[in-house]
Please model this.
Amino acid sequence: MTGVTARGRVGGGRVRSGGMERRDPENAVDELTMLTQYLDFHRATFVRKASGLTREQMGRRLGPSTLTLAGLTKHLALNEDSWFQNRLMGRPMRDLWRDVDWDADPDWEFRTALDESPEDLFALYADCCAASRAAVAEVGDLDALSHEESRRSGERFSMRWIILHMIEETARHNGHADLLRENVDGLTGE
Model:
């Protein structure tokens, strides 16, 4: 495990935190392996950025924003389930998400995350990521189309598109996590 450097940055290398090991993606592998390794890299990066904090610290906000590390963790878990289980595989949403009135409470996952322990949030995220990996392995073909169609175009998504979207989604929230974590205790990092 790497530590904190003198400048308050989290050091690099292979790190295991929150049940996910962060590894650099390989340079010369097939496309499916490369894309899933990049997604796993960003998943583990997020967990690394948010790990080791108390419930109060996970709920800390920056300025007028309502965004928190706790909310981001639950939001990323929701996106894993929504894209890989529901849209790609055509499976119903797990009970946790199924009965939410998203029209009445569109930020439900962000709001309710504040009531949960960091351990429970990271366990949920790890479980959703594991289910996503299993779905990708089950499909095994980047050109395979999702069961659910796009609300905008009416077309189905390729698994390639879904994985790339989740890389973008997770990487974008890693940037948010950087700012939130630095606000909590000054730590910054990759």
Observations:
- The chain has a mean pLDDT of 90.
- The CA atoms of residues 4 and 10 lie 5 Å apart.
